[in-house]
Specification:
The complex is a heterodimer of chains A (603) and B (210). Chain A has helices at residues 10-13, 56-68, 90-102, 143-150, 191-205, 211-214, 222-230, 234-244, 254-267, 284-297, 421-443, 537-551, 567-583, 592-599; strands at 46-52, 72-75, 87-88, 108-115, 131-132, 138-139, 159-162, 164-167, 276-279, 301-303, 308-312, 317-320, 325-334, 351-360, 374-379, 392-398, 409-415, 482-492, 525-526. Chain A is α/β, with parallel strands linked by helices and 603 residues long. Chain A folds into three domains: 10-84 and 284-347 and 497-563, FAD/NAD(P)-binding domain (3-Layer(bba) Sandwich), CATH 3.50.50.60; 90-128 and 137-159 and 351-492, Guanine Nucleotide Dissociation Inhibitor, domain 2 (2-Layer Sandwich); 179-267, Guanine Nucleotide Dissociation Inhibitor, domain 1 (Orthogonal Bundle), CATH 1.10.405. In chain A, strand 12 (317-320) and strand 13 (325-334) form a beta hairpin. In chain A, helix 2 runs parallel beside helix 10 (284-297) and helix 7 (222-230) packs across helix 8. The two termini of chain A are 47 Å apart. By secondary structure, chain B is an alpha/beta fold. Chain B is globular. Chain B starts with a strand and ends in a 17-residue tail after the last strand. Classes of the chains: A alpha/beta (603), B alpha/beta (210). At the A-B interface, helix 4, strand 7, helix 10, strand 10 and helix 13 of A face helix 1, strand 2, helix 2, helix 7 and strand 8 of B. Guanosine-5'-diphosphate binds next to helix 1 and helix 4 of chain B. Chain B: Its main location: membrane. Chain B: The modification Cysteine methyl ester is found at residue 210. Chain B: GO terms for molecular function: GTP binding; GTPase activity. Chain B: One of its GO terms (biological process) is endocytosis.
Chain lengths: 603, 210
């Protein structure tokens, strides 16, 4: 349903150069930003929407608005794309750290950096590395993935599979307390446990409909639910909640956990025997560049090195640091990091995400599935020396991802623990990884062979590798060479599992009532900082909510229909639509395909 | 039918308003070779050219205007196999910028990128416009840096096709097989995932070798 306030679409607002719907025959040359009409050499005097900050949410929003037909001016105070989602070189990180510590980058604190002399003046150059400020993985069945396909932004990018999700347990990288109970992957798993697991998996794929099963536990923890209702034991419970669900602690509520476990399972085998993907050359930094390019093609104007100084909600004029001005007819959208001086409406960013990013001189290929260069390692609560209460997640990327040179690897550690404990937990996790890696590289340990085939085509669901088992007592002789260590605390308004809700963006929307005299940001809307979430799940939700605020409805959010005669792309689009249908219901994933997949898991 | 198709990512660089987009428009909308209409993808314009029985598929990345306020992204140059660095023969400033872009490409892009330096808008010289960048200056820069060199008019179409043919010819014929085997290797090593090839039975195009 189109709401009455809905702004006209691109087709309605702009004389059509070529109508796709009327005539799907060969295109000649499309109406393109800068191809049909030369672009003006100055920034526009008047735009529909001004967006400050080129992070993921802002970039997806810019592309959505540009293709919808809005006139967008998209700026960033930095000289690079990405803002809170940037992928940076080592030199850029050095500058960023200085800015954080000078207090000129809001929402980040306590940045500590070590860079080996081997980078810059030695073996490696700053540009050999691409470090993400908030690394993410892309689930194979997710909103963002379908938008990447629809918008064709995926054509600017390369994706690689991520199949290894390790769990660290028992003060060692022994896979689990008792390897005999390794979830799914062990033939010695008691029949009863396997049955219970399968029962749970069948349930979780269609959990919402089965309220009678989970409702009674809706306010209780997921571990209670798994133990009481499905008679699962600790190793399975941990693997389900932390490795598969990627949850942050044991208090996770049942619906959230179910949704996250299902995310993994329905993503599995969409493109192959793995649930997630990583983009090459960098994560969200790379994706935001792709969406910005798409927005530019759709007509948005880009200007880096441009800082908003103030917005006047009465005259609707935004003023920039270089003295230029623009009249904004609809909305001004700003990332909290780009807030002008004297801003008074920046939402409180009360949740901390602690991050440690290391570059290690060691290929660490033992941790990757064959041919891959990415892995997740999860440290569940209580698994570390520090007695961690929250999970520490370590996302590992190798040279194959082109974010670091051959022979090196990047570890992205993060935790949702708050306060000084967080750093202790992260340090403990780092030490555990370091020890495990040294044992690994010295022993040449083979991956475990015991794997139960679960799907019809011989793929396993969980391909967890036992790291360094039985080398618990081994004391390594060598030390690991760290090329780079970056510690920082990031602040966000989105709690772990927090769903971005529309009312958040209403902070400034009660018009004049909330204007503060002297504030430079009256009448602007702030976006959210990235949360601790390791997947891109929050991005589309946030962009969509903002889109609706601006356009009046989200009906035509990325309602693109690129038709062309390139056979390959045409079939790609058909496929994208299919795919879209499958996940259209958002939380209510179509179970047809997945049902089959469960059916084949004969025990 | 010729089965060996080499795909080339080609990027355009140069000061705003030198005619980059016009050159592309001229190239893709001309009756060129025995070719069909250009195909339009959301990501880039594509145009196939057949040179000596060998088909070169240009994936042309225009700047989409992002160069106007110095906002090109690193993603833009990445893995480009060819680049047109364009200047306006009537604007000396644009030639200075061209030098800058050549330098930038040598730093940022792949080592063996083929670069064509293109002095555009030569039609203006016939119409009383004054030449501000001598042909020799362009030739000299091209020679120094190992670039192809052309002077073109996107308006009349003069020399535009030659730019792309020239680049196509510099891609050695054997590159096709090399590229195929190289990219196959890359796929098996790096597990590149094609997002259009989901396993839900809808993608019958897994055999495509574009
Ligand atoms: N006379 C003449 N004008 C040209 C030529 N090429 C482009 N133009 C004009 O120069 C302006 C800028 O061209 P455009 O292709 O948008 O430049 P871009 O910013 O580099 O993409 C437009 O007004 C074009 O019509 C040419 O060869 N001769
Ligand atoms: Mg242009």
């Amino acid at each position: 349903m189109l709401s009455p306030e809905r702004r006209p679409s691109m087709a309605e607002r702009r004389p059509s150069f070529f109508s796709f719907t009327q005539n799907p025959s060969p295109l000649v040359v499309p109406h393109l930003a800068g191809i049909e009409d030369p672009l003006p050499a100055t920034t526009p005097d008047k735009v529909d929407v001004l967006i400050a900050g080129t992070g993921m949410v802002e970039s997806v929003l810019a592309a959505a608005l540009a293709w919808q037909g809005s006139n967008v001016l998209h700026i960033d105070k930095n000289d690079y794309y990405g803002d809170t989602s940037a992928t940076l070189t080592v030199d850029q990180i050095k500058r960023w750290v200085n800015e954080v510590n000078e207090g000129s980058v809001s929402c980040y604190k306590n940045a500590k950096l070590y860079v080996s002399t081997l980078i810059g003046s030695g073996k490696y150059s700053s540009r050999d590395f691409g470090i993400d400020l908030s690394p993410k993985i892309l689930f194979a069945k997710s909103d963002l993935l379908s938008i990447l396909i629809k918008s064709r932004v995926h054509q600017y990018l390369e994706f690689q599979s991520l199949s290894n999700f390790h769990t660290y347990e028992n003060d060692c990288f022994e896979k689990l307390t008792n390897t005999k109970q390794e979830i799914f992957t062990d033939q010695n798993l008691p029949l009863m446990t396997k049955r219970n697991l399968m029962k749970f998996i069948k349930f979780v794929l269609n959990w919402e409909a089965q309220t009678e099963i989970w409702q009674p536990y809706a306010e209780r923890t997921m571990s209670d639910f798994l133990v009481e209702k499905f008679k699962l034991e600790k190793p399975q419970v941990f693997e389900l909640i932390f490795s598969i669900g990627l949850c942050y602690d044991l208090n996770v509520k049942v619906p959230e956990a179910l949704q996250r476990i299902r995310r993994y399972l329905t993503s599995f085998d969409v493109y192959g025997p793995f649930p997630a993907l990583c983009s090459k050359y960098g994560g969200p930094g790379e994706l935001s560049q792709g969406f910005c390019r798409s927005a530019a093609v759709g007509g948005a104007t880009y200007k880096l090195n441009e800082k908003l100084v103030s917005f006047n909600p009465t005259t609707k004029v935004a003023t920039f640091q270089d003295g230029s001005k623009v009249e904004v007819s609809e909305k001004v959208i700003i990332s909290p990091t780009q807030a002008p001086k004297d801003s008074k409406h920046v939402p409180q960013q009360q949740h901390q995400v602690h991050r440690l990013t290391c570059i290690v001189e060691n290929p660490c290929t033992e941790w990757f599935n064959e041919g891959e260069s990415a892995a997740m390692v999860v440290f569940p609560p209580g698994s570390l020396k520090s007695g961690n209460k929250e999970v520490v997640q370590a996302f590992i990327l190798g040279a194959g991802s082109e974010i670091c040179p051959e022979g090196t690897i990047v570890w992205y550690l993060s935790t949702t623990e708050q306060g000084p404990r967080a750093e202790m937990d992260i340090d403990a996790a780092l030490e555990a990884m370091e020890m495990a890696l040294l044992r690994e590289s010295s022993s040449g340990l083979e991956n475990d062979e015991e794997i139960v085939q679960l799907t019809g085509n011989g793929h396993t669901i969980v391909n967890s590798v036992k790291l360094g088992q039985s080398f618990k007592e081994y004391v390594p002789r060598e030390r690991l060479q760290f090329l780079f260590k970056l510690y920082y605390t990031q602040y966000t308004s989105t709690p772990p599992f927090g769903v971005v809700n529309s009312s958040f963006f209403d902070v400034n929307q009660d018009l004049e009532k909330k204007y503060i005299p002297g504030a430079s940001d009256n009448g602007v809307i702030y976006t959210t900082m990235p949360s601790a979430e390791i997947s891109y799940d929050e991005v589309v939700t946030a962009a969509k909510v903002l889109y609706e605020k601006i356009v009046g409805s989200d009906d035509d959010f990325f309602d693109l229909d690129f038709e062309d005669e390139d056979e390959i792309q045409a079939s790609g689009v058909a496929n994208a639509e299919q795919f879209e249908n499958a996940i259209d219901d958002d939380d209510d994933v179509n179970m047809e395909g997945s049902g089959e997949f469960v059916g084949e898991m004969e025990i | 039918m010729n089965t060996s198709v080499t795909s080339i990512k080609l990027v355009l660089l140069g000061e705003a308003a030198v005619g980059k987009s016009s050159i592309v428009l001229r190239f893709v909308s001309n009756d060129f070779a025995e070719n069909k209409e250009p195909t339009i993808g959301a990501a880039f314009l594509t145009q196939r050219v057949t040179i000596n029985e060998h088909t070169v598929k240009f994936e042309i990345w225009d700047t989409a205007g992002q160069e106007r306020f110095a906002s090109l992204a690193p993603m833009y140059y990445r893995n480009a196999q060819a680049a047109l660095v364009v200047y306006d023969v009537t604007k000396p400033q644009s030639f200075i910028k061209a030098r800058h872009w050549v330098k930038e490409l040598h730093e940022q892009a792949s080592k063996d990128i083929i670069i064509a330096l293109v002095g555009n808008k030569i039609d203006m010289l016939q119409e009383g416009g004054e030449r501000k960048v001598a042909r020799e200056e362009g030739e000299k820069l091209a020679e120094e840096k190992g670039l192809l060199f052309f002077e073109t008019s996107a308006k009349t179409g003069e020399n535009v096709n030659d730019v792309f043919l020239g680049i196509g010819e510099k891609i050695p014929l054997k590159t096709a097989e090399e590229q195929n085997s190289a990219s196959n290797e890359r796929e098996s090593n790096n597990q590149r995932v094609d997002l259009n090839a989901a396993n839900d039975g809808t993608s019958a195009n897994s055999a495509c070798s574009c």
